[in-house]
Write a structure and sequence with these properties.
Structural class: mainly alpha
CATH topology of the largest domain: MetI-like fold
Shape: globular
Pfam family, one: BPD_transp_1
CATH architecture of the largest domain: Orthogonal Bundle
Number of strands: 0
CATH superfamily of the largest domain: MetI-like
Largest sheet: none
Function: Probably part of a binding-protein-dependent transport system. Probably responsible for the translocation of the substrate across the membrane.
Distance between the termini: 11 Å
Number of helices: 17
Family: Belongs to the binding-protein-dependent transport system permease family.
Number of domains: 2
Protein name: Inner membrane ABC transporter permease protein YejB
Helix content: over 70%
Radius of gyration: 26 Å
Organism: Vibrio eleionomae
Strand content: under 5%
Protein backbone atom coordinates (compact mmCIF):
# COMPACT_ATOMS: atom_id res chain seq x y z
CA UNK A 1 0.00 0.00 0.00
CA UNK A 2 2.76 2.45 0.93
CA UNK A 3 4.69 1.65 -2.27
CA UNK A 4 1.59 2.23 -4.41
CA UNK A 5 0.84 5.53 -2.69
CA UNK A 6 4.45 6.65 -3.17
CA UNK A 7 4.32 5.81 -6.90
CA UNK A 8 1.08 7.76 -7.33
CA UNK A 9 2.52 10.79 -5.53
CA UNK A 10 5.67 10.68 -7.67
CA UNK A 11 3.51 10.46 -10.80
CA UNK A 12 1.98 13.82 -9.87
CA UNK A 13 5.26 15.57 -10.73
CA UNK A 14 5.55 14.61 -14.45
CA UNK A 15 1.80 15.04 -14.91
CA UNK A 16 1.89 18.59 -13.58
CA UNK A 17 4.97 19.36 -15.66
CA UNK A 18 3.38 18.05 -18.87
CA UNK A 19 0.14 19.99 -18.41
CA UNK A 20 1.84 23.26 -17.47
CA UNK A 21 4.38 22.95 -20.29
CA UNK A 22 1.78 22.20 -22.94
CA UNK A 23 -0.43 25.09 -21.90
CA UNK A 24 2.52 27.46 -21.56
CA UNK A 25 3.59 27.04 -25.18
CA UNK A 26 0.03 27.02 -26.52
CA UNK A 27 -0.79 30.31 -24.81
CA UNK A 28 2.52 31.87 -25.88
CA UNK A 29 1.61 31.55 -29.57
CA UNK A 30 -1.92 32.89 -29.06
CA UNK A 31 -2.41 36.43 -30.42
CA UNK A 32 -3.10 39.40 -28.17
CA UNK A 33 -0.62 38.76 -25.35
CA UNK A 34 -0.32 40.86 -22.19
CA UNK A 35 2.04 43.37 -23.80
CA UNK A 36 -0.44 44.01 -26.60
CA UNK A 37 -3.24 44.22 -24.04
CA UNK A 38 -1.29 46.82 -22.05
CA UNK A 39 -0.46 48.81 -25.19
CA UNK A 40 -4.13 48.85 -26.20
CA UNK A 41 -5.11 50.11 -22.74
CA UNK A 42 -2.34 52.67 -22.80
CA UNK A 43 -3.38 54.03 -26.16
CA UNK A 44 -6.97 54.26 -25.01
CA UNK A 45 -6.26 55.80 -21.61
CA UNK A 46 -2.91 57.60 -21.87
CA UNK A 47 -3.59 60.07 -19.13
CA UNK A 48 -4.53 57.38 -16.60
CA UNK A 49 -2.06 54.60 -17.38
CA UNK A 50 1.02 56.49 -18.57
CA UNK A 51 2.10 57.12 -14.97
CA UNK A 52 2.40 53.39 -14.36
CA UNK A 53 5.10 52.87 -16.96
CA UNK A 54 6.79 56.30 -17.31
CA UNK A 55 6.50 57.74 -13.82
CA UNK A 56 5.08 61.05 -15.05
CA UNK A 57 1.70 62.43 -15.79
CA UNK A 58 2.75 64.01 -19.08
CA UNK A 59 1.71 62.58 -22.39
CA UNK A 60 4.48 61.13 -24.50
CA UNK A 61 4.51 62.44 -28.03
CA UNK A 62 3.88 59.81 -30.70
CA UNK A 63 6.96 58.62 -32.51
CA UNK A 64 7.26 58.32 -36.26
CA UNK A 65 9.24 55.12 -35.78
CA UNK A 66 6.79 53.53 -33.40
CA UNK A 67 5.78 50.90 -35.94
CA UNK A 68 9.24 49.34 -35.46
CA UNK A 69 8.49 48.51 -31.81
CA UNK A 70 7.77 44.86 -32.68
CA UNK A 71 4.24 44.57 -31.24
CA UNK A 72 1.05 44.92 -33.13
CA UNK A 73 -0.95 47.78 -31.73
CA UNK A 74 2.09 49.79 -30.64
CA UNK A 75 1.71 52.37 -33.40
CA UNK A 76 1.41 55.84 -31.89
CA UNK A 77 3.56 55.04 -28.82
CA UNK A 78 7.22 55.79 -28.27
CA UNK A 79 9.39 52.63 -28.66
CA UNK A 80 10.91 53.33 -25.23
CA UNK A 81 7.46 53.08 -23.66
CA UNK A 82 6.87 49.76 -25.40
CA UNK A 83 10.21 48.50 -24.08
CA UNK A 84 9.24 49.57 -20.57
CA UNK A 85 5.99 47.66 -20.91
CA UNK A 86 7.87 44.57 -22.05
CA UNK A 87 10.24 44.84 -19.09
CA UNK A 88 7.32 45.41 -16.73
CA UNK A 89 5.76 42.10 -17.78
CA UNK A 90 9.06 40.24 -18.20
CA UNK A 91 8.69 39.87 -21.96
CA UNK A 92 12.13 41.36 -22.61
CA UNK A 93 13.50 37.88 -21.80
CA UNK A 94 13.62 34.98 -24.28
CA UNK A 95 10.90 32.35 -24.23
CA UNK A 96 13.06 29.56 -22.78
CA UNK A 97 14.15 31.79 -19.87
CA UNK A 98 10.56 32.72 -19.00
CA UNK A 99 9.62 29.03 -19.11
CA UNK A 100 12.54 27.99 -16.89
CA UNK A 101 11.83 30.71 -14.34
CA UNK A 102 8.17 29.72 -14.24
CA UNK A 103 9.04 26.09 -13.46
CA UNK A 104 11.49 27.12 -10.72
CA UNK A 105 8.91 29.41 -9.12
CA UNK A 106 6.13 26.83 -9.26
CA UNK A 107 8.25 24.22 -7.48
CA UNK A 108 8.32 26.58 -4.48
CA UNK A 109 4.69 27.70 -5.02
CA UNK A 110 5.81 31.23 -5.85
CA UNK A 111 3.34 32.43 -8.46
CA UNK A 112 4.35 36.08 -8.69
CA UNK A 113 2.03 39.04 -9.23
CA UNK A 114 -0.92 39.55 -11.53
CA UNK A 115 -0.04 41.54 -14.65
CA UNK A 116 -3.20 43.64 -14.61
CA UNK A 117 -4.73 43.38 -11.12
CA UNK A 118 -1.71 44.69 -9.25
CA UNK A 119 -1.69 42.06 -6.51
CA UNK A 120 -0.03 38.80 -5.56
CA UNK A 121 -1.57 35.82 -7.36
CA UNK A 122 -1.83 33.72 -4.19
CA UNK A 123 -3.65 36.56 -2.42
CA UNK A 124 -6.06 36.90 -5.37
CA UNK A 125 -6.80 33.18 -5.30
CA UNK A 126 -7.21 33.15 -1.50
CA UNK A 127 -9.74 35.98 -1.72
CA UNK A 128 -11.87 33.99 -4.15
CA UNK A 129 -11.50 30.50 -2.70
CA UNK A 130 -14.36 30.82 -0.17
CA UNK A 131 -16.83 31.47 -2.99
CA UNK A 132 -15.71 28.58 -5.20
CA UNK A 133 -15.34 26.15 -2.30
CA UNK A 134 -18.81 27.08 -1.05
CA UNK A 135 -20.41 26.54 -4.46
CA UNK A 136 -18.47 23.38 -5.29
CA UNK A 137 -18.69 21.70 -1.88
CA UNK A 138 -22.37 22.30 -1.17
CA UNK A 139 -23.46 21.56 -4.75
CA UNK A 140 -21.54 18.28 -4.86
CA UNK A 141 -22.77 17.30 -1.40
CA UNK A 142 -26.42 17.99 -2.22
CA UNK A 143 -26.20 16.18 -5.56
CA UNK A 144 -24.72 13.06 -3.93
CA UNK A 145 -27.06 13.13 -0.92
CA UNK A 146 -30.12 13.30 -3.20
CA UNK A 147 -29.00 11.23 -6.20
CA UNK A 148 -27.66 8.16 -4.40
CA UNK A 149 -30.79 7.45 -2.28
CA UNK A 150 -32.93 8.33 -5.31
CA UNK A 151 -30.99 5.95 -7.55
CA UNK A 152 -31.22 3.13 -5.00
CA UNK A 153 -34.97 3.63 -4.61
CA UNK A 154 -35.42 3.69 -8.39
CA UNK A 155 -33.48 0.42 -8.68
CA UNK A 156 -35.61 -1.27 -6.00
CA UNK A 157 -38.84 0.02 -7.57
CA UNK A 158 -37.71 -0.39 -11.18
CA UNK A 159 -40.57 0.03 -13.64
CA UNK A 160 -42.97 1.52 -11.09
CA UNK A 161 -44.73 4.88 -11.39
CA UNK A 162 -42.22 6.40 -9.01
CA UNK A 163 -39.37 5.26 -11.27
CA UNK A 164 -41.02 6.72 -14.38
CA UNK A 165 -41.99 10.07 -12.90
CA UNK A 166 -38.72 10.59 -11.05
CA UNK A 167 -36.83 9.83 -14.27
CA UNK A 168 -38.93 12.39 -16.13
CA UNK A 169 -38.28 15.06 -13.50
CA UNK A 170 -34.51 14.59 -13.34
CA UNK A 171 -34.24 14.52 -17.14
CA UNK A 172 -36.20 17.78 -17.41
CA UNK A 173 -33.87 19.27 -14.79
CA UNK A 174 -30.87 18.03 -16.77
CA UNK A 175 -32.23 19.63 -19.94
CA UNK A 176 -32.49 23.08 -18.33
CA UNK A 177 -29.17 24.96 -18.48
CA UNK A 178 -27.96 26.17 -15.09
CA UNK A 179 -27.75 29.80 -16.18
CA UNK A 180 -31.34 29.71 -17.50
CA UNK A 181 -32.62 28.26 -14.25
CA UNK A 182 -30.62 30.96 -12.43
CA UNK A 183 -32.45 33.63 -14.43
CA UNK A 184 -35.79 32.06 -13.49
CA UNK A 185 -34.82 31.97 -9.81
CA UNK A 186 -33.67 35.60 -9.89
CA UNK A 187 -36.89 36.79 -11.56
CA UNK A 188 -39.11 34.84 -9.16
CA UNK A 189 -37.34 35.21 -5.83
CA UNK A 190 -34.85 38.09 -5.97
CA UNK A 191 -35.97 40.73 -8.45
CA UNK A 192 -38.92 42.09 -6.50
CA UNK A 193 -41.28 41.51 -9.44
CA UNK A 194 -42.80 38.53 -7.66
CA UNK A 195 -40.89 37.97 -4.42
CA UNK A 196 -37.84 39.56 -2.85
CA UNK A 197 -36.76 36.74 -0.57
CA UNK A 198 -33.08 36.35 -1.45
CA UNK A 199 -30.13 38.69 -2.14
CA UNK A 200 -28.59 39.11 -5.57
CA UNK A 201 -24.99 39.89 -4.69
CA UNK A 202 -22.10 38.58 -2.64
CA UNK A 203 -21.33 35.65 -0.39
CA UNK A 204 -22.42 37.45 2.81
CA UNK A 205 -24.09 40.71 3.79
CA UNK A 206 -22.20 43.97 4.39
CA UNK A 207 -22.89 43.80 8.14
CA UNK A 208 -21.71 40.18 8.42
CA UNK A 209 -19.03 40.99 11.02
CA UNK A 210 -21.61 42.56 13.36
CA UNK A 211 -23.89 39.49 13.35
CA UNK A 212 -23.89 36.76 15.98
CA UNK A 213 -22.47 33.35 15.01
CA UNK A 214 -25.87 31.79 14.32
CA UNK A 215 -26.97 34.86 12.36
CA UNK A 216 -23.77 34.60 10.31
CA UNK A 217 -24.58 30.98 9.46
CA UNK A 218 -28.11 31.97 8.43
CA UNK A 219 -26.83 34.92 6.38
CA UNK A 220 -24.30 32.70 4.59
CA UNK A 221 -26.89 30.12 3.55
CA UNK A 222 -29.34 32.91 2.67
CA UNK A 223 -26.87 34.16 0.05
CA UNK A 224 -25.97 30.65 -1.11
CA UNK A 225 -29.49 29.30 -1.65
CA UNK A 226 -30.21 30.53 -5.19
CA UNK A 227 -26.71 29.95 -6.66
CA UNK A 228 -26.59 26.40 -5.29
CA UNK A 229 -30.10 25.61 -6.55
CA UNK A 230 -29.09 26.85 -10.00
CA UNK A 231 -26.00 24.63 -9.98
CA UNK A 232 -27.57 21.39 -8.72
CA UNK A 233 -30.72 21.32 -10.88
CA UNK A 234 -28.94 19.61 -13.75
CA UNK A 235 -26.70 17.39 -11.64
CA UNK A 236 -29.20 14.83 -10.38
CA UNK A 237 -29.92 13.00 -13.64
CA UNK A 238 -26.50 11.56 -14.41
CA UNK A 239 -25.66 10.41 -10.89
CA UNK A 240 -29.11 9.05 -10.05
CA UNK A 241 -29.27 7.05 -13.30
CA UNK A 242 -25.72 5.80 -12.78
CA UNK A 243 -26.60 4.70 -9.25
CA UNK A 244 -29.78 3.00 -10.41
CA UNK A 245 -28.05 1.07 -13.20
CA UNK A 246 -25.18 0.04 -10.92
CA UNK A 247 -27.59 -1.34 -8.33
CA UNK A 248 -29.75 -3.06 -10.95
CA UNK A 249 -26.65 -4.75 -12.35
CA UNK A 250 -25.62 -6.00 -8.90
CA UNK A 251 -29.14 -7.02 -7.82
CA UNK A 252 -29.40 -9.43 -10.75
CA UNK A 253 -26.10 -11.20 -10.00
CA UNK A 254 -25.87 -14.76 -8.71
CA UNK A 255 -24.60 -13.94 -5.22
CA UNK A 256 -27.75 -11.87 -4.55
CA UNK A 257 -29.99 -14.73 -5.72
CA UNK A 258 -28.05 -17.09 -3.44
CA UNK A 259 -28.36 -14.72 -0.47
CA UNK A 260 -32.11 -14.48 -0.98
CA UNK A 261 -32.39 -18.26 -1.24
CA UNK A 262 -30.63 -18.53 2.14
CA UNK A 263 -33.32 -16.31 3.65
CA UNK A 264 -31.25 -13.21 4.30
CA UNK A 265 -33.15 -9.99 4.99
CA UNK A 266 -33.63 -7.82 1.88
CA UNK A 267 -32.17 -4.79 3.67
CA UNK A 268 -29.09 -6.74 4.70
CA UNK A 269 -28.60 -7.96 1.14
CA UNK A 270 -28.96 -4.46 -0.26
CA UNK A 271 -26.79 -2.49 2.15
CA UNK A 272 -24.23 -5.09 3.26
CA UNK A 273 -23.51 -6.77 -0.08
CA UNK A 274 -24.98 -4.90 -3.06
CA UNK A 275 -24.17 -1.40 -1.77
CA UNK A 276 -20.43 -2.04 -1.43
CA UNK A 277 -20.07 -3.35 -4.99
CA UNK A 278 -22.46 -0.92 -6.68
CA UNK A 279 -20.91 2.17 -5.08
CA UNK A 280 -17.46 1.61 -6.61
CA UNK A 281 -18.35 3.29 -9.91
CA UNK A 282 -20.02 6.17 -8.04
CA UNK A 283 -16.91 6.80 -5.96
CA UNK A 284 -14.74 6.76 -9.08
CA UNK A 285 -16.59 9.74 -10.52
CA UNK A 286 -16.40 11.95 -7.44
CA UNK A 287 -13.05 13.74 -8.13
CA UNK A 288 -13.99 14.77 -11.67
CA UNK A 289 -17.49 15.80 -10.56
CA UNK A 290 -16.15 17.97 -7.75
CA UNK A 291 -13.47 19.62 -9.91
CA UNK A 292 -16.00 20.29 -12.67
CA UNK A 293 -18.44 22.01 -10.32
CA UNK A 294 -15.68 23.69 -8.32
CA UNK A 295 -13.92 25.31 -11.27
CA UNK A 296 -15.80 25.39 -14.58
CA UNK A 297 -19.40 24.70 -13.62
CA UNK A 298 -19.70 27.72 -11.36
CA UNK A 299 -18.37 30.43 -13.71
CA UNK A 300 -21.71 31.57 -15.17
CA UNK A 301 -23.36 31.30 -11.77
CA UNK A 302 -20.63 33.47 -10.26
CA UNK A 303 -21.23 36.11 -12.94
CA UNK A 304 -25.01 36.11 -12.57
CA UNK A 305 -24.98 36.34 -8.77
CA UNK A 306 -21.95 38.67 -8.57
CA UNK A 307 -19.87 36.04 -6.77
CA UNK A 308 -16.17 36.65 -7.34
CA UNK A 309 -14.78 33.12 -7.38
CA UNK A 310 -11.98 31.12 -9.00
CA UNK A 311 -13.97 30.35 -12.15
CA UNK A 312 -14.61 34.01 -12.89
CA UNK A 313 -11.02 34.91 -12.01
CA UNK A 314 -9.61 32.31 -14.41
CA UNK A 315 -11.95 33.35 -17.22
CA UNK A 316 -11.11 37.04 -16.91
CA UNK A 317 -7.38 36.26 -16.67
CA UNK A 318 -7.58 34.21 -19.87
CA UNK A 319 -9.31 37.04 -21.73
CA UNK A 320 -6.72 39.54 -20.49
CA UNK A 321 -3.79 37.15 -21.08
CA UNK A 322 -2.86 37.55 -17.43
CA UNK A 323 -0.44 34.63 -17.57
CA UNK A 324 0.54 34.39 -13.87
CA UNK A 325 -3.12 34.06 -12.86
CA UNK A 326 -3.93 31.67 -15.74
CA UNK A 327 -1.05 29.29 -15.04
CA UNK A 328 -1.40 29.50 -11.26
CA UNK A 329 -5.11 28.62 -11.42
CA UNK A 330 -4.37 25.76 -13.83
CA UNK A 331 -1.51 24.50 -11.65
CA UNK A 332 -3.53 24.56 -8.43
CA UNK A 333 -6.64 22.97 -9.95
CA UNK A 334 -4.58 20.24 -11.65
CA UNK A 335 -2.76 19.48 -8.42
CA UNK A 336 -6.07 19.36 -6.54
CA UNK A 337 -7.54 17.02 -9.16
CA UNK A 338 -4.58 14.64 -8.97
CA UNK A 339 -4.73 14.54 -5.18
CA UNK A 340 -8.48 13.87 -5.27
CA UNK A 341 -7.84 11.04 -7.72
CA UNK A 342 -5.45 9.43 -5.24
CA UNK A 343 -8.01 9.89 -2.47
CA UNK A 344 -10.56 8.22 -4.75
CA UNK A 345 -8.34 5.13 -5.06
CA UNK A 346 -7.89 4.99 -1.30
CA UNK A 347 -11.66 5.20 -0.90
CA UNK A 348 -12.01 2.26 -3.31
CA UNK A 349 -9.97 0.11 -0.91
CA UNK A 350 -11.92 1.38 2.08
CA UNK A 351 -15.25 0.46 0.48
CA UNK A 352 -14.03 -2.90 -0.84
CA UNK A 353 -10.94 -4.34 0.93
CA UNK A 354 -10.66 -6.98 -1.82
CA UNK A 355 -9.25 -4.33 -4.17
CA UNK A 356 -5.47 -4.29 -4.11
CA UNK A 357 -3.95 -1.69 -6.44
CA UNK A 358 -0.41 -2.55 -5.36
CA UNK A 359 -0.82 -6.17 -6.49
CA UNK A 360 -1.94 -4.95 -9.90
Amino acid sequence: MAAYLLRRLLLVIPTLWAIITLNFFIIQVAPGGPVEQAIAQLEGQKSGLMDRFTGSGQDIAPSKDSHHAGYKGSRGLDPEVVEQIKQQFGFDKPLWQRYTEMLKNYVTFHFGDSLFRGGNVIDLIKERLPVSISLGLWSTLIIYLVSIPLGITKAIRHGSRFDVWSSALVIVGYAIPGFLFAIILIILFASGNYFNWFPLRGLVSDNFAQLTWYQQIGDYFWHMTLPILAMVVGGFATLSMLTKNSFLDEINKQYVVTARAKGLDEGAILYKHVFRNAMLIIIAGFPSAFISIFFTGSMLIEVMFSLDGIGLLGFEATIQRDYPVVFSSLYIMTLLGLILSIISDLTYMWVDPRIDFEAR
